[in-house]
Input
Amino acid sequence: MNRIKLIVCYYGKFPEWMNVWLKSCELNSNIDFMIVTDIKLGELPSNVTILNIGFNELKKHFSNVLGFEVSLETPYKLCDYKPVYGKAFQKELDGYEFWGCCDIDLIWGNISKFITNEILDKYDLIGKYGHLMIYRNNEKMNNLFMQKGGTFQYKTVFINDNNYSFDEMSGMDLIAHRKQVKQYKNLKVANASPLYSRFKIAGTVSEKEFFVWKDGKVLRVSGEKEVQIEEFAYLHFSGKKPKNNASKEYIEKSNVYLSAKSLENRLQEEFTLKEIEEKNMFISEEVDKTEKRKINKRKIVSVLNKTIKQKMIWIKVHKGVSKFNRIERENV
Output
């Protein structure tokens, strides 16, 4: 049996849905989770542990591990440090065959249904997005971030305080490709597109649908004439911040609607076309196109407000993402 520990470093106030996230961790009882934080949490599931460490102390720890003074001024910069976790937390990872870095703006489904022991035996890296990347716990993979191949080299990333998206496509994914790492990139996740205010899986055709966390599974429920159910390893919010209106009772039995606006109690057990009509957030293709244009305009304004250095990083990161996507298309 392959043992996995997933690590998240989090500083600041935990989100409203933290109790739902923790319950979704608990239901994946064969995987362990570790939260690195300076916040005190109450009672936790047996497979979730806390490593209490101050933010400045964590910065010093990364500096000691890497052998040079790092730049880490804000918690958001921690995204770039995710590939270092295997090296930085070796003591906590003793006895584990795999470690992973993950986010908390998501709800876990039945992870083991999608990351089987057969996959773990065959691959050294699972996933391609920063919200979940799982590495084999050995010297090669724990030091992979030091290798060439990414848009930026690791020392550049860690001595500057700008964000370089080093943990995913323009960084670690390109490095893994260059070093011919056996990477499983077909993990089935519901990755909400940042171009819409609702939960819409990036790359999918719009239709009447809703998402639910039921019996420890993340499900997309859709259909016009009959109910279609599709299961995912997890649903990633992509920065959206839903209100948590789910009660303890419904969280405990994991029957909760998941939308970008809120998490809500789900009263019924069976799925129906009527429920799809009632919970559907899709209006029309034209509304989607209008919303997409508005969000893209806001993104453009955000980029224009960046410093010259930040703009150059942004351009290079997006070129790196395009390069990775081109590699993927060529390998299909």
